[in-house]
Design brief:
The complex is a heteropentamer of chains A (309), B (270), C (417), D (358) and E (262). By secondary structure, chain A is an all-alpha fold. Chain A has eleven helices and two strands; from the N terminus they run H-H-H-H-E-E-H-H-H-H-H-H-H. In chain A, a hairpin with an 8-residue loop joins strand 1 and strand 2. Chain A is globular. Chain B is of the alpha/beta class and 270 residues long. Chain B has a domain of 185 residues: P-loop containing nucleotide triphosphate hydrolases (Rossmann fold), CATH 3.40.50.300. In chain B, the strands form two sheets. In chain B, strands 6-7-8-3-9-10 form a six-stranded mixed beta sheet, sandwiched between helices. A four-stranded antiparallel beta sheet of chain B has the order 2-1-4-5, with helices on one face. The radius of gyration of chain B is 19 Å and the shape is globular. The two termini of chain B are 25 Å apart. In chain D, the strands form two sheets. In chain D, strands 1-4 form a two-stranded antiparallel ribbon. A two-stranded antiparallel ribbon of chain D has the order 2-3. Chain D has a single domain, classed as ABC transporter involved in vitamin B12 uptake, BtuC, CATH 1.10.3470. In chain D, helix 4 packs across helix 5 and helix 4 crosses helix 10. Chain D is built from 14 helices and four strands. In chain D, 72% of the residues lie in helices and 2% in strands. Classes of the chains: A mainly alpha (309), B alpha/beta (270), C alpha/beta (417), D mainly alpha (358), E alpha/beta (262). Chains in contact: A-B, A-C, A-D, A-E, B-D, B-E, C-D, D-E. Chains A and D meet through helix 4, helix 9 and helix 11 of A and helix 6, helix 9, helix 11 and helix 13 of D. The complex binds adenosine-5'-triphosphate (2 copies) and magnesium ion (MG) (2 copies). One adenosine-5'-triphosphate sits at the interface of chains E and B. The site of one magnesium ion has 3 residues of chain B, from helix 1. Chain A: One of its GO terms (cellular component) is plasma membrane. Chain A: Keywords: Amino-acid transport, Cell membrane, Membrane, Transmembrane, Transmembrane helix, Transport. Chain A: Pfam families: BPD_transp_2.
């Protein structure tokens, strides 16, 4: 029982971390109907920027405080992400208004390649460290009730809290502001949105900036977990079933999807894996998402796919 | 160059799609302040293209204006983005409705007010006005646009443009898919806005009959060229126009059943 | 061009495995430069060209094809990835280029009678696994103490990760310990489930067969689940600085088997490299990293290849450029005595190695080193993998390969050629 | 001026239905084929054939298969790597378990295994659409990665799960030399490309495209979505499976599941998008762009840098290669969102008008 | 009414159809019949449920209540494929063409139901498959001639102006050689002359192919001129049914739809 709870809890935590990456996908999809293939690259880029500035800033300023270094690095990396967003809009998206999803997807792929190259050129391709003071050692709960207690990872707990806060904030932003409505309009029909005066370019810069910040937070947390290195980009692949399960357009969906996928893959690996030789969690996550889709083809909270003649 | 009473001055524009398809071959037209100008012509004449060129929506169709100039109240506007044009009061109602499928009718209408800065109350007022124009929209306000009927979507598209409180509207086939009564109403609305709020209209219409009834001036476009223009009244009297666009060739109206042979439209040489 | 021996360098300095690939490549290239600085191989200079593979098999094959015929033909090739090794193994006999895989590749290719062109010199994964089991046994106080113990193998879910399994199963049968297999899907960024299973099963030891990000993630998860790092043993590809660097203190106590060498900043070789290359601004990569574990592995790999060429020259003519076939002979008749090693600057870094027609591996020695939070330190004596176990395993697996390919084992006469 | 169809009148619908209705095109294609079959093997270096042409030909074949599914039928697939893997391992099993089975039937049987697998994972497409479907195909991808690593039977109990083949021959003709491998792959490609072209311009191709463009309307005119989608999955995965088997047998010789990883799937999808969805030529352009361009960049960049007296490190080149490659993708999309094939045909159209601008 | 046309028995009978979406009642208890060879119009204000009615006949929507009898067989609801096989074709109000395909291919899809060669024959494209393709192509060319879109044969339909797209839509439906042809606002977005052409096409189809036609149209001139009988819907209810003259003078119809008398 204790072990089951532990697995469950572990799954929930991982799920929240997936959500954080998933969120980036959702934001950009919502605002432009584009599946942003560069999300993984953005996470890496942001994390690299953060890690390196946290190294460089104390060197430049001579101030040794970790809080200062990390805080300043976060701000600078955020600015870098804004610049990236602005450039992407200027150089790429602006020229692809009203094109099909596949074309835009491909463009984001080009962006992904570019960011991979640029990130490593600017910031190096080694392993770097983000040390924001996350506690690494385990704590044990309920050790009176269960033998050995239930192991909880504090780092995960903090990360999950940050993820939850971010999601709450974004949900609010989209629900309560007129921008939310404009975003959805843009995603539906670029040209019509333009025709009634919605400034596509500005909207896209805003959204990519927000997505950049989300990528930065995701990169910071995953980077502190894994070390900042190229493999961070592959986290995107694990977040994919989350996005799809939650619904491509739903911010809360990313969270719920994350929790379901997190729990599902951990339980399956732990309880089913041993019978078939293990290593099943990744495809199990996708199959799980698929099963949900068979019942709700638009994901749990996605907007209904419209097909009408 | 342009006199102050001219809102829109299109000067010899040429439009090419996809770098190879030449569609407009030097179209010029002038829309005076507070006027209603009709742009007439058969399928594929280039009406939609002209309107897109004015509102700068060609890029998304991979088209481009390669020659000529477009001026709005004396200012060159080829380089302005559509949203800047909307801020200057020029808005287009696109052909084929283009409602935002996932948004409700009301949200669709509200997006039209995106550029407005005159406060919630004013917007709510316009919304009521639009609902008054199209009561049907009010009853369907909470349904997603994709699940409304064709005519309802058309009303929504027109209403959405009106929400921006424009001073000049480009209407592309507003009557398409609307019941006769509503067509009548739409033109009444046009007249109404035109006289009460001095909104200028440029409308591309197939329903020539209606268009010439309400417009002050008309241009006839064929094959990417203006082949005739004139006061609406005089166009209505023109024999050719009568025959080809109004369906009242020569004597009386012919029954659609009795038009025995396919007619070839007279091709003007321009 | 005329008097140069060409060695292609397949490396990966980009992509997911760049942090590990880069120091290796630095060491490899630096050593080749060093040989030239020292006057070449009996006067024959080495020319080399680097090709970026990104640890991708198809890209590696492209590099191999691109470089194999350049500059008079490649003397030997070191594919530096298990996948590429498999593919190049099929091509090398046709192209007559020896494939040197120092510490990776297919373990059964130690059998030179079947794998004429493959040289897993200095150790295979079976050697590594065997050495680890011996080290664990020593800790427990003898092989017989392993009975009833639980050992978990956390491995990269790929042919690379699966290599040690046959040997470990053999050992498990012999000593009666329980072997638990826990695959981690590549690249291994998410291991929560694996470590939950570790926590549930509470094994006595965990063996880590990872690569790249998987290693540091495993160590972090071990820390997070409170598994003693002292009871973790990694393969030599999981025992270098990039694997523990960003875990820092969290990896303290973690052990890994070494492929003879560890981090050797004090060795003569390192001093030579620094003085002859880096001090003259001709070095590759950062100077501080010279002598780290993967750097040394790169240097050692290069050295073994170079010595193969040297040994070929001894038979086919000193000061001449060797063909691939001649180099193959040289690699097969390598005899690196202690004196030779000392001369090369590898004193204390490694033990003598000598290969033969039947034994392309040449040595089965390893050591354990342990991360003390700052650096890798040796913590065991030399361990020799048990021939009684490895030999038959190599033989039977190689025989199976030969049967599948309808190869006949080389005759003693062929060995002379 | 010289490239016109003027004066080339079609007197029968059959003539009008030809793949290349314009005479110049037919001549050009004929010359190209002669060049590819008869000249290239003599001119191309061993490296060019083994490292560039052979993979290019095989990957073009795979891209062709992906294009059937994604480009013609509109079903987004990220499982192409899996179909390649099933083709490769399937062919391997037939080839090794039935000694004496000739190569071509083994490849075809491998393709058929992929077909079955494709149909199985195509079933969700009856309900799930668009990007959401990508999840189903990714499930196929990760499942196949896992399956070939875990189920020993498929790899004939090889401990590491990596397998190899050798002694390939066709009608007694050994497929060993670079030229023979190249010609064999090229022949397979040409035959399959012709068959595919026939399919896509025939009734079934129209069904696929109809489903892609507007499935409700397609249903109303009597097209069965199930049949159309599953047949697209079947044909596509057959072609991809054969390509996978060729990739494994002819190009790699020995392989592990990672040779058909999700990266490969993504790359194939990119190829068909950048090449041009729903275009046979697009598959070739896309394959060339994605597989050949990076290699070329990798070799050309140092030379270019050399002109400016700069020396770039391998890392520098690798990173520059990524950036330039990404930049080129974006640039081509901006020039022509519908892919290189469209760019090509627009170019031809201009040529037709040349020297007049319109 | 031309003399060689004879209106026959009831071919399609719609009984008590009700359809609602959530709270929206699109159709309430609608019944009407269509006789062989007649031109039957459905009119009504926007959102009255006209298109929904066609969708029910077509098997795109499944009504909650009622049944549809086609050639003596009664169905609770139809299935799109079945309907197509029985010879019902349809055009769409919001153009539902296959945008990525050429005009020719779009119309050829209409023949697919009649093409019998299998996948392998098509791949080889030799003999029977080739002959079949050519045979159908000939038929389609007739339609292209008939609709006068020869010049655009190979153009992707997405690039055509709206009016021509409507014609292609009709062409695709005609290619099915339908017994019943359902037309949803085929003349929206056309000028008078084009409408005349279109009317002519429709009447010709009716005459030459002998197809029965169900027509939705907002242009009263057209409806009154070419239809034999008219159904009037309003808010999902039937408020009138009869010959154009009867309908024209029906009080309810005038109030709900016509406004002034036409
Ligand atoms: N996106 C496009 N790409 C290529 N050609 C186009 C495109 N849009 C329109 N055209 C071509 O431009 C010409 C004019 O089209 P346009 O849509 O302006 O006509 P229109 O007068 O609005 O006709 P309709 O009354 O049918 O709407 C047509 O021949 C059409 O084929
Ligand atoms: N799929 C659907 N989901 C929800 N409501 C629908 C759906 N289809 C139609 N409706 C509603 O049913 C009513 C009838 O729609 P329908 O399209 O049949 O009208 P119509 O008579 O064709 O009108 P128009 O002349 O404007 O085309 C409308 O109010 C519409 O909003
Ligand atoms: Mg138009
Ligand atoms: Mg309708």
């Amino acid at each position: 029982m204790a072990f089951f709870l532990e697995t469950l809890f572990g799954g929930l935590m991982v799920g929240m971390l997936y959500s954080l990456v998933a969120l980036g996908f959702v934001l950009i999809f919502k605002a432009s109907g584009v599946f942003n293939f560069a999300q993984g690259a953005m996470v890496l880029f942001a994390a690299l920027a953060m890690a390196r500035f946290a190294e460089w800033i104390p060197m430049w300023t001579g101030i040794e405080s970790r809080w200062f270094a990390n805080g300043a690095a976060f701000v600078v990396a955020g600015l870098v992400m804004f610049a990236v967003a602005w450039l992407i809009e200027r150089l790429v998206l602006r020229h692809l208004v009203n094109q099909e999803g596949a074309t835009l997807l491909m463009a984001t792929l080009g962006i992904a390649y570019f960011l991979d190259g640029a990130g490593q050129t600017l910031f190096g391709s080694n392993i770097y460290k983000i040390d924001i003071g996350m506690p690494k050692d385990p704590i044990f709960l309920l050790d009176k009730v269960f033998e050995g207690g239930i192991l909880i990872n504090k780092e995960d707990l903090y990360a999950a809290a940050i993820a939850a806060a971010l999601v709450a904030l974004l949900s609010l932003f989209f629900q309560k502001t007129g921008t939310g409505r404009a975003l959805r309009a843009v995603a539906d029909d670029h040209q019509a949105a333009q025709s009634i005066g919605i400034p596509l370019t500005r909207i896209w810069v805003i959204v990519w900036c927000v997505a950049g910040v989300v990528a930065l937070v995701a990169g910071m947390i995953w980077g502190s977990k894994l070390g900042v290195q190229f493999s961070l980009t592959t986290v995107a692949l694990r977040a994919l079933p989350v996005v799809i399960l939650g619904g491509l357009t739903s911010v809360p969906g990313a969270i719920i999807g994350g929790l379901i996928i997190g729990v599902g893959e951990k339980l399956s690996e732990v309880y089913l894996g041993p019978y078939v030789g293990g290593g099943i969690e990744i495809w199990f996550a996708y199959v799980l998402a698929l099963v949900f889709l068979l019942f709700r083809p638009q994901g749990l909270f996605g907007e209904k796919i419209i097909d009408r003649v | 160059m342009s006199s102050p009473s001219i809102v829109l001055n299109v000067n010899g524009i040429e439009v090419i799609y996809n770098h190879v398809i030449l569609v407009l071959k030097g179209v010029s037209l002038v829309v005076p302040e507070g006027g209603i100008v009709a742009l007439l012509g058969g399928n594929g004449a280039g009406k939609t293209t002209t309107l897109r060129a004015v509102s700068n929506l060609l890029a998304g169709e991979r088209g481009a204006v390669t020659k000529g100039s477009i001026e709005l109240r004396g200012e060159r506007i080829e380089a302005l983005s559509p949203s800047e044009l909307v801020k200057r009061g020029l808005i287009q109602v696109m052909e084929g409705r283009h409602c935002f499928a996932h948004l409700t009718i009301e949200d669709n209408l509200m997006t039209g007010a995106y550029t407005r800065t005159d406060g919630k109350a004013a917007i709510a007022e316009t919304l009521e006005k639009v609902y008054a124009y199209f009561p049907r929209l009010k009853t369907r306000r909470t349904s997603q646009a994709a699940y409304t009927s064709g005519g309802e979507q058309q009303m929504c598209a027109i209403g959405r443009a009106l929400m921006a409180n424009p001073t000049m509207v480009l209407l592309d086939e507003p009557s398409m898919g609307l019941a006769p009564q509503i067509v009548e109403e739409v033109f009444e609305i046009v007249k109404d806005l035109n006289t009460k709020e001095r909104v200028t209209f440029l409308l591309a219409e197939q329903n020539t009959n209606m268009a010439l009834r309400y417009a002050d001036y008309g241009y006839i476009l064929e094959n990417g060229r203006i082949v005739m223009d004139g006061e609406a009244r005089s166009l209505r009297e023109n024999e050719d126009v009568k025959e080809f666009y109004l369906g009242v060739g020569g004597a009386d109206r012919k029954s659609f059943r009795d038009v025995k042979s396919y007619k070839r439209r007279k091709r003007w040489l321009a | 061009q005329a008097n140069e021996q060409f060695i292609p360098v397949l490396s990966y300095r980009t992509g997911a495995y760049a942090p590990n690939g880069t120091p290796w490549a630095n060491g490899y290239v630096d050593y080749l430069k060093l040989v030239n600085a020292r006057g070449g191989i009996n006067g024959v200079k080495i020319s080399f060209e680097e090709c970026e593979t990104g640890y991708d098999t198809a890209r590696s094959v492209e590099c191999y094809e691109r470089l194999k015929g350049k500059n008079g033909g490649a003397s030997l090739v070191q594919p530096l990835s298990t996948g590429a090794t498999f593919a190049i193994t099929e091509k090398a006999p046709v192209d007559k280029i020896p494939v040197v895989t120092v510490g990776y590749g297919r373990s059964e290719s130690a059998d030179g009678t079947v794998f004429k062109w493959n040289f897993p010199i200095a150790g295979t994964y079976w050697v590594a696994a065997d050495a680890i089991i011996q080290a664990v046994a020593k800790k427990e106080g003898g092989l017989d103490k392993l009975k009833g113990k639980k050992i978990a193998l956390i491995y990269h879910d790929s042919p690379y990760g699966k290599e040690p399994i046959p040997l470990l199963q053999e050992r498990a049968k012999m000593h009666g310990f329980d072997l638990q297999l826990l695959p981690v899907t590549a690249p291994g960024v998410e291991q929560k489930a694996t470590w939950l299973q570790v926590r549930q099963a509470r094994p006595d030891y965990v063996l880590l067969w990872g690569w790249g990000v998987m290693n540091s993630t495993a160590l972090k998860e071990a820390q997070a689940t409170g598994f003693a790092r002292e009871k973790m043993y990694g393969v030599w590809w999981a025992g270098a600085e990039p694997d523990v660097k960003d875990v820092g203190d969290g990896a303290k106590g973690y052990n890994a088997v070494t492929m003879q060498h560890g981090a050797e900043p004090q060795s003569k070789l390192v001093k030579d490299v620094v003085s002859m290359l880096h001090d003259k601004n001709q070095g590759t990569g950062p100077k501080e990293e010279v002598g780290q574990v993967l750097y040394m592995r790169g240097a050692m790999s290069a050295m073994l290849g170079v010595e193969g060429i040297r040994s070929a020259q001894e038979r086919f003519g000193k000061g001449k450029v060797m063909t691939g076939e001649q180099v193959r002979w040289g690699l097969e008749n390598l005899n690196l005595t202690q004196a030779k090693l000392d001369g090369l600057g590898f004193a204390g870094v490694m033990r003598p190695i000598s290969t033969s027609c039947t034994d392309h591996m040449g040595a089965a020695w390893a050591r354990i080193h342990t991360w003390d939070g700052k650096a890798w330190k040796f913590t065991s004596d030399w361990l020799q993998a048990d021939e009684q176990i490895i030999k038959p395993l190599v033989k039977s697996t190689a025989a199976k390969y030969a049967a599948e390919k309808k190869l006949t084992a080389r005759t003693p006469a062929d060995c002379q050629s | 001026m010289f490239y016109r169809e003027n004066g080339q009148f079609k007197t029968s619908y059959r003539a009008d239905q030809q793949v290349f209705p314009i005479l110049q095109d037919r001549v050009a294609i004929g010359l190209l084929l002669i060049f590819a079959f008869a000249v290239v093997p003599f001119l191309a270096s061993d490296y060019l054939m083994r490292a560039i042409l052979i993979p290019f030909v095989i990957i073009s074949l795979a891209a062709l298969g992906v294009n059937v599914l994604v480009g013609y039928c509109g079903q987004i697939s990220l499982g192409s790597g899996a179909f390649m893997a099933v083709g490769a391992y399937g062919a391997y099993n037939f080839f090794v378990r039935f000694p004496g089975l000739p190569l071509i039937p083994a490849l075809i049987l491998g393709g058929l295994c992929a077909t079955l697998f494709g149909i199985l994972f195509g079933l969700p497409s009856l309900r799930v659409k668009g990007l959401y479907l990508a999840v189903a195909t990714l499930a196929a991808q990760f499942f196949s990665d896992w399956m070939f690593l875990r189920i020993k039977w498929f790899t004939l109990d090889t401990p590491s799960g990596s397998v190899s083949v050798s002694n390939l021959q066709v009608f007694g003709w050994p497929i060993e030399s670079a030229a023979s491998k190249y010609l064999f792959c090229l022949a397979m490609l040409v035959v399959i490309a012709v068959l595919t072209k026939n399919l896509v311009r025939g009734a079934i191709g129209r069904e696929w495209m109809a489903i892609r463009d507007m499935d409700v309307a397609a249903a109303v005119i009597g097209i069965r979505p199930m049949y159309a989608k599953l047949s697209a999955f079947a044909v596509s995965s057959f072609i991809i499976g054969v390509a996978g088997a060729l990739w494994a047998f002819v190009y790699l010789g020995a392989w592990e599941p990672a040779a058909f990883s999700v990266d490969q799937s993504f790359r194939l999808l990119f190829m068909v998008i950048i090449g041009g969805l729903g275009s046979i030529t697009g598959a070739f352009f896309g394959a060339a762009f994605i597989t050949v361009l990076p290699i070329v960049l990798n070799q050309v960049l140092p030379v270019i840098a050399g002109w400016f007296g700069a020396q770039i490190s391998t890392v520098g080149i690798a990173h520059a290669e990524l950036m330039i490659f990404g930049g080129l993708i974006v640039w081509f999309l901006i020039v022509e969102p519908h892919g290189l094939a469209k760019l090509w045909s627009t170019g031809k159209q201009k040529l037709r008008l040349w020297p007049f601008p319109h | 009414m031309s003399s060689n046309r004879k209106v026959g028995e009831v071919i399609l009978d719609v009984q008590n159809i009700s359809l609602s979406f959530g709270g929206v009642k699109a159709l309430t208890d609608i019944s009407f019949d269509v006789r062989e060879h007649e031109v039957r119009a459905i009119i009504g204000p926007n959102g009255a449920g006209k298109s929904s009615m066609l969708n029910c006949i077509n098997g795109v929507y499944w009504p909650q209540q009622g049944s549809i009898t086609f050639r003596g067989k009664t169905f609770k609801h139809m299935n799109s494929r079945q309907v197509a096989e029985m010879g019902v074709a349809r055009t769409f109000q919001n153009l539902a063409l296959f945008k990525g395909m050429s005009v020719l291919d779009n119309i050829m899809t209409g023949r697919n139901l009649r093409m019998k060669s299998n996948l392998f024959q098509q791949a080889i494209r030799w003999g029977a498959a080739e002959r079949e393709e050519t045979k159908h192509r000939e038929f389609v060319e007739q339609i292209i001639d008939f609709l006068e879109i020869q010049a655009h044969r190979k153009t992707p339909v997405g690039q055509l102006p709206y009016g021509l797209q409507k014609r292609v839509d009709l062409g695709r439906a005609l290619a099915m050689e339908p017994q019943v042809l359902l037309l949803d606002e085929p003349m929206a977005g056309m000028n008078v002359e084009e409408k005349q052409d279109m009317s002519r096409f429709i009447l010709d189809v009716n005459d030459e192919f002998g197809s029965t036609i169900v027509l939705i149209e907002h242009d009263m001139g057209v409806v009154m001129d070419i239809s034999d009988r008219v159904v009037v819907l309003d808010y999902g209810k039937k408020i009138g049914d009869g010959t154009p003259d009867e309908v024209r003078s029906n009080e309810n119809v005038i109030r709900a739809y016509l406004g002034v008398e036409h």
